[in-house]
Amino acid sequence: MALTRRQKQVLDFIAQFGDDNGYCPSYDEIARGLNLASLATVHKHIAALTSKNYLKRGFNQSRSLELAPKYVQEQRRSKRAALEIPLAGRIAAGAPVEGLERRETLNLGDFTADGNAFALEVRGDSMIEDCICDGDMAILSPVTEVRDGDIVAALLSGSDTTLKRIYREPGDMIRLQPANSGMSPIRVRASDVRVQGRLLAVLRRYR
User: Fold this and answer.
1) Which residues share a beta bridge with 141?
2) What pTM did the predictor assign?
3) Spatial distance between the Cα atoms of 119 and 121, rounded to a whole number of angstroms
4) 126 noted as active-site residue
5) Which domains does the chain carry?
6) Pick the catalytic residue: 164, 181, 184, 191?
7) pLDDT digits (tens, 9 = 90+) for 95-150
């Protein structure tokens, strides 16, 4: 059964409250948060959401609400769908190729390792030979370990962040190598470098 607009608001409020506070809201907090007229109205919405398998609740407890798996699954599907665009075919830079015979989609979520991925806007052309241009959006995954040659966002001495290929060198040194033959590498002590993320993908908008 579909949710009414108000039921969706109640459900989203409960989910957001739990994310913000680490525990579920009381009925009073739901009423105040959504400007509902009475606790009876809250009870009515909770009962409806429970019957539709969006919520689970205990008895005789003020904070007994829990999001049911159905809600979590629908949220995941909704987020995934929001990131999908039609994959209409394939195009070659040389000889032509055939389009796709069946409809597919490209999900931008496939380019992220997990929900913690983040984006940084690229400034400058130090990575131009790796086809990373000024204005591109670099999608990165937070990591604690990287391999030599990985493209990373590196924080230097706690202030400046740069996108470069990383290499370990003798003497506890780090070389941050640009992909631009006109630029020199950056060499710093390992203790002065903190890797913020490893590159997953690059997005570019053509205007």
Assistant:
1) 198
2) 0.56
3) 7
4) yes
5) 5-80 (1.10.10.10), 84-108 (no CATH), 111-203 (2.10.109.10)
6) 164
7) 555 554 555 666 666 666 566 778 888 988 999 999 999 888 888 888 878 999 99
